[in-house]
Task: inverse folding
């Protein structure tokens, strides 16, 4: 078996077995009392991590956690509580987007060295760059959990077994009728392509490589997203794989990544599953794969283990600040954003 194929197979094998890692001696701090904070708390519970501290902003959020988890809950916000918390094996920052960078900087200032920062880290690549400048020996990663989906690494394995990906197309159509307006800051909606659509765009790019050449078009506009409502484009990746994309936020559709090999086509739609269309056929059939924790949000437990186990992180790969900056810049190109004038 070629060495690179062996490595891809090993990545999938290790991700599907993250439940076997022993983490009962680890300590974890979660900053953020919202939906993602609860998802991380649930994953830590399944991983057997007992020493967990959670910092929430309000007493209500603290009460919500107390009802569900037997962890140490501190309310009052990260500015008040973070300096009082001792050194932890891992700090997970799952605050609203505008507080991700400030909370990370304070965590670094107070001596924390392993920090998992919720995606996208910042809406502005300039802020990610400024954060990266103060990193010394700290391990700071951006939590693009979909890149650690077991099925995502399974599709890599399948494609490699067939000689590699020959082309790719992806769709990041948003269901705008489902967007919770009035919940986030205005910039979150204005830059929705960064705050949300990057979930699927990063999956496609991690499969084929970053764009070497890309041509992007934006059409239409929405009252809250004036840079466009229809996005189409194409290009070639650094791996010389041609790709195209399409998204129409004013019509129907859904997130999707499709890759082609010389033998088959594979599709992530929904992103949590795999379907195959064999050459010479038109029927899409499901592909089986294994997951460590069916009850948890895919990729969350896998991220935690990778952050706590350097060997696994070296093999699987997490999103560094440098890579996150590249992602944001690509999104600016795809969506026609001018973030310099907004930041």
Result:
């Amino acid at each position: 078996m070629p060495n690179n194929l062996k490595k891809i197979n090993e990545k999938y094998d290790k991700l599907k077995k993250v439940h076997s890692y022993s983490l009962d001696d680890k300590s974890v701090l979660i900053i953020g009392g919202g939906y993602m904070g609860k998802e991380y708390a649930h994953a830590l519970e399944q991983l057997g991590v007992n020493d967990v501290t959670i910092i929430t902003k309000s007493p209500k959020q603290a009460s919500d956690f107390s009802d569900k988890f037997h962890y140490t809950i501190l309310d009052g916000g990260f500015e008040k509580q973070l300096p009082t918390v001792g050194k932890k094996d891992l700090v997970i920052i799952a605050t609203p987007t505008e507080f991700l960078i400030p909370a990370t900087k304070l965590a670094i200032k107070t001596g924390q060295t392993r920090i998992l920062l919720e995606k996208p880290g910042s809406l502005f690549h300039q802020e990610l760059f400024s954060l990266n400048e103060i990193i010394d020996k700290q391990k700071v990663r951006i939590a693009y959990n979909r890149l650690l989906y077991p099925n995502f690494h399974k599709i890599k394995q399948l494609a490699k077994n067939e000689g590699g990906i020959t082309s790719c197309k992806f769709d990041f159509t948003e269901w705008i009728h489902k967007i919770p307006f009035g919940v986030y800051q205005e910039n979150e909606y204005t830059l929705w392509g960064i705050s949300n659509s990057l979930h699927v765009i990063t999956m496609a790019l991690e499969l084929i490589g970053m764009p070497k050449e890309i041509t992007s078009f934006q059409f239409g506009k929405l009252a809250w997203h004036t840079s466009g409502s229809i996005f189409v484009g194409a290009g070639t990746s650094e791996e010389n794989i041609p790709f195209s994309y399409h998204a129409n936020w004013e019509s129907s559709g859904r997130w999707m990544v499709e890759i082609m090999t010389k033998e088959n086509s594979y599709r992530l739609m929904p992103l949590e599953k795999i379907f195959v269309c064999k050459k010479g056929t038109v029927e899409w059939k499901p592909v089986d794969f294994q997951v460590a924790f069916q009850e948890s949000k895919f990729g969350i437990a896998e991220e935690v283990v990778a952050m706590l186990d350097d060997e696994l992180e070296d093999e699987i790969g997490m999103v560094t600040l440098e890579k996150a900056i590249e992602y944001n810049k690509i999104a600016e190109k795809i969506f026609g954003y001018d973030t310099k004038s907004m930041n």
Summary: The chain has two domains: 3-146, 154-290+321-341. The mean pLDDT is 94. Residues 145 and 308 are 15 Å apart (CA to CA).
